[in-house]
Amino acid sequence: MTEVRGPVRVRFAPSPTGFLHVGGARTAIYNDLLRQSAGGAFVLRIEDTDRERSDEAMTHQIQSALQWVGVEWDEGPFLQSERLDRHRARAEELLASGGAYRCFCPPEELDRQRQEAQRRGDAFRYPRTCLRLSEAEVRERLARGEPFAVRCRMPDEPIRFHDLVRGDMEFPPEALDDFVLLRSDGTPTYHLSVVVDDVDMGITHVIRGEDHLSNTPKHIALFRAFGAVVPAFGHLPLILGPDRKRLSKRIGSTAVEEFRAEGFLPQALYNFLALLGWNPGGEREILSRREMIELFSVERLNASAAVFDREKLGWMNAQYLSGLPLAEIRPHLEPFLAEVGLGGGKVDEARLAAALELHRTRARTLRDLAQAVVPYFASQLDYDQALCGKYVDDPKVAEGLGALRERLLALPEWEKGAIEAELRAVAEARGVKAGAIIHPTRMALSGASAGPPLFDLLEVMGQEATARHLERFAACLREEFRTAPTG
RNA sequence: GGCGCAUUCGUCUAGGGGUCCAGGACGCCGCCCUCUCACGGCGGUAACACGGGUUCGAAUCCCGUAUGCGCUACCA
What we know:
The protein is mainly alpha-helical. Helix content is 49%, strand content 11%. The chain has 21 helices and twelve strands. It has a three-stranded parallel sheet with strand order 1-2-3, covered by helices on one side. Strands 4-5-8 form a three-stranded antiparallel sheet. Strands 6-7 form a two-stranded antiparallel ribbon. Helix 3 crosses helix 6, helix 9 (266-275) packs across helix 11 (310-323) and helix 18 (434-446) crosses helix 20 (463-478). The N and C termini lie far apart (69 Å).
């Protein structure tokens, strides 16, 4: 019944007052999904009419964030601020046709009345004082140069519409206020601008945040006043923080850019956000944009608010990190490699690729992954003395590692099967279990007590670096760790 | 205050009158795999906000209540 077919024209209309918020990104994603699955066009429009709060740099930020996360638009970006004359002209038309009227009431007076009404517990609507002004009086006050706003004349019947997400909606006339279209300084208000733009851009489906649900009757009245086709509306619930309040800065990241900087893959963020309030039907949760486009339908959009679950995002990112072809991950990884000094092809590519392959199932973020691969290229490693304490007290360890080093150095072919055979021989010769050699060796080579299977690690590390790290670690065991202050 | 929207495991959700003593996923716990960690596999923990109806039968329909959120501007 609410199924959407055929070409659509959707839009995403952020205000450039800050970075792209994940809530905004999700709205953009659903518009993207709808546009891609139904065909048509996605219009990007920047609602920068609030000069005070708008920032041109943010306009670029928002675009790059959208691009990064994988939302594609067909038209725009259009700047609403460049269309102000058009908005004003359309308000003039309404004035001429009777769809709007001039209001000379001083705002302070209206404020007073509003507070009064609130104190009584009543809903406040503009009392239409100026609607009853005679033409002569209007002319006279105009001639006197009295300031005026232009108000939309709202209908006296209820406004009904079918929300794509929430179903049938009805707003009684008592709830419909004659809202301002043009301020007394002649600038258009948000409601006017939005509707004029949506009409001019031929928008057929408005998918936006729940905060606009109560504004929709105003918009519908305007569409009708303009004699335009009223688009279909769908109102998305908000994204909540773990405290069940509107997702806020103080709980953690909220901007797409921040997730990018923390090392999340755009594919994962897109997937995660898409599933926060939409259910594709099956039980699979890891879905590519392609698959989601196939599966998308507005009927399966959820009407209730969802808590943003960082843990699950982390899990999803890990899934993409281990599942995506390495080639797809690499470009996103590059900045993080640079952060740890491994960027720009400075290190052996084959070794780097092999190391990444070994660690990708163990990382949650790109940052983790870049960090994990550092030991393979470090000339010298730092060891945590507390973790090495158990090896210091066992003289067999240093001796065993020395022996292992000799044998590995003598290996004609650097291959994990052969490496393993040597290590096991060393252990057996000393009457200890392989683990007694394996664990200190891992520590020696990676500076960590956990990581990939040791023989894989060794193979990737290479003969030269292995020997070097083994030698230094054994030396540390014998000398430094004993004399250095423990802590 | 008024108007509106929402309410299934801690979280994301499936469910649209009987197939539900409620299914999947994240998290958590246990087991398996195993040189450690992770991946993976197997198992477990945990929910229909509350109260009234309607009905032979309600998580599913209706009405209240509670809670949360949104709007209530010559902000967007």
